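so ive been stuck on this for like two days lol. basically i have the seq below and the ligand is LRN75BOA, smiles is in there too. i just want the complex predicted, nothing fancy, no docking runs or whatever. if the output looks off dont worry ill sanity check it later, just need somthing to start from for the group meeting slides
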Amino acid sequence: MTAEDLAAWIGRTERVEDDISPAQAAAAAAMLEPPPPLPAKDSALPPLWHWFYFLPRAPQSQLGIDGHPQRGGFIPPIPYPRRMFAGARIRFHQPLIIGQPAWREGIIRNVTQKSGRSGPLAFVTVGYTIYQNDSLCIEEEQDIVYREPGAPIPAPVPVDLPPPPPGAWVRTVTPDTRLLFRFSALTFNAHRIHYDRPYAKHEEGYPGLVVHGPLTAVLLMELVRHNVNRPIIGFSFRSQAPLFDLAPFRLIAVPADDRVELTAQGPDGMTSLSAVAELGKAEY
Ligand SMILES: C/C(=C\C(=O)SCCNC(=O)CCNC(=O)[C@H](O)C(C)(C)COP(=O)(O)OP(=O)(O)OC[C@H]1O[C@@H](n2cnc3c(N)ncnc32)[C@H](O)[C@@H]1OP(=O)(O)O)C(=O)O
C-alpha cells in the first residue's frame, strides 16, 4: 500500500448517532475517584465524557487481531500492526446534555508517514464534530499512530519522584486491571493491549497492560474539574510514552491564568503524557 493509496482515505466520512444516556454517564462516574456527583438527566455532560458515547459498532467477525475494527473501512489500511492513541485537540463549544440524542460526524483529515526513534510511524488524523439539537457542541481532532513491531519495551524502573511544582494539584493513580477493564468497557474498546496480558507482552512487546491514553486524559481532566470552578473550553494532549499497569503513576496539574498545564508522570519520573486545559470565564 503506497502513500498515494493511503491518501485516498483522506476525506472519508462516517456518521454515528447516539442518545447521551444517563446510565452510561452513571457508569463513567462510578469508575472515577473521588466519585464525582452523579450526572443527572438534562444536566451537562462533563468534558471528555463524550468518549463514552458514539461507540464502535463493528460486528465481532470484523474485528482485527488487535481487537480494533479491521482497517480499510473508515480507518485506512495502514500496514503497521501496533496501534496507539497519540493525542488529541478538543474545543468545547457547548456541553452535551444528558438524556438527549446527538450525532457525531467523523472525517479522515490526514495520513502521514514519519520516521521515529522507535522506527517507521504512520499517523492518522481523524476529525470529529458532535452536534445536539442542531448546535455544534464539540470539535475534536485525534491522532492515531501505527508503528512497526520493534524491540520489546522494558518495564520502567521506579525512582524517587521529585517534589511537584509549588501550587500544583497532584494525584497518584494505581492503574489496576479493574480500572483498565472498566475504561475499555465504557468505550467499547476491544484493543487487547489494555486487558489481554499475554497478547500485550508476547505479541506487542509491552512489559504489562497499557493504560489508555484517553483514560489518563480523563483522569487529568477530573483533577482540573475537582479544583476549578470554571468551564473548560479546550483541551489538548500528547502521549509521549506508554504507562503500564505495573506501578502507580502521578498526575500533576499546574494552574495558570486561563489554563492548567497537566502532566502524567511515569514511575520512572519521565513525562508520559502532557496536556493543557483551557478555562473559560467563571460562571456566577
Ligand atoms: C485508546 C487506544 C490506544 C491507547 O490508548 S495506547 C496508549 C496511549 N498512547 C501511548 O502510550 C503512546 C505513547 N507514545 C509513544 O509510545 C511514542 O511517542 C511513539 C508514538 C511510539 C513515537 O515515538 P518515537 O520515539 O518513535 O517518535 P519520535 O519522538 O522520534 O517522533 C517522530 C515523529 O513523530 C511525531 N510524534 C511523536 N509522537 C507523537 C505524538 N504523540 N503525537 C503526534 N506526533 C508525534 C514527532 O513530532 C516526530 O515528527 P517530526 O515531524 O518531527 O518528524 C486505542 O487504540 O484506541
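The helical segments are 3-7, 22-31, 177-186, 197-203, 213-227. The radius of gyration is 19 Å.
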